[in-house]
């Protein structure tokens, strides 16, 4: 029995959700637990992405990366669309793990981190922009105090 794109979508989304739940709600003082959302799940998703991309991207006639129309053509194939989704899941979770660790280093309270991590989970670059803005403000405040 072959695995369908819908099954892969469900597995990838569930594993990413598990990673986000660990990042947002569980303690980070246990390195083995933090390893799961920071590296293990993004690595697994990256392997899935690589398999989907290599198997399907070059099979779409008229698809490519030279124009928006070519990219749109790529995503008309369900497996390539799934690869794109898995790409988002892997990178957003990896960035979320980085944000969580950096925020802990700055001493940012978990209640403040949570909305930033949720924004990263839901809207990727928006959460990253929020964190980088907050971090820049933190360092500006540190320099002003010194």
Automatic annotation (TrEMBL):
Ranges annotated as spanning the membrane: 7-27, 39-59, 80-100, 112-133
Pfam family, one: ABA4-like
Keywords: Membrane, Transmembrane, Transmembrane helix
Name of the protein this chain belongs to: ABA4-like family protein
Lineage: Bacteria, Pseudomonadati, Pseudomonadota, Alphaproteobacteria, Sphingomonadales
Highest taxon in the source lineage: Bacteria
């Amino acid at each position: 029995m072959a695995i369908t794109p819908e099954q892969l979508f469900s597995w990838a989304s569930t594993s990413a959700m598990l990673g986000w739940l660990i990042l947002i709600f569980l303690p980070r003082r246990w390195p083995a637990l933090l390893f799961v959302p920071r590296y293990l799940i993004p690595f697994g998703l990256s392997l899935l992405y690589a398999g989907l991309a290599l198997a399907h991207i070059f099979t779409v006639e008229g698809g490519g990366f030279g124009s928006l129309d070519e990219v749109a053509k790529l995503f008309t194939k369900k497996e390539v669309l799934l690869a794109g989704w898995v790409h988002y899941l892997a990178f957003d979770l990896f960035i979320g793990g980085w944000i969580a660790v950096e925020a802990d280093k700055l001493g940012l309270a978990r209640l403040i981190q949570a909305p930033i991590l949720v924004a990263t989970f839901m809207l990727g670059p928006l959460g990253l922009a929020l964190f980088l803005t907050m971090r820049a403000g933190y360092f500006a405040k540190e320099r002003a105090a010194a």
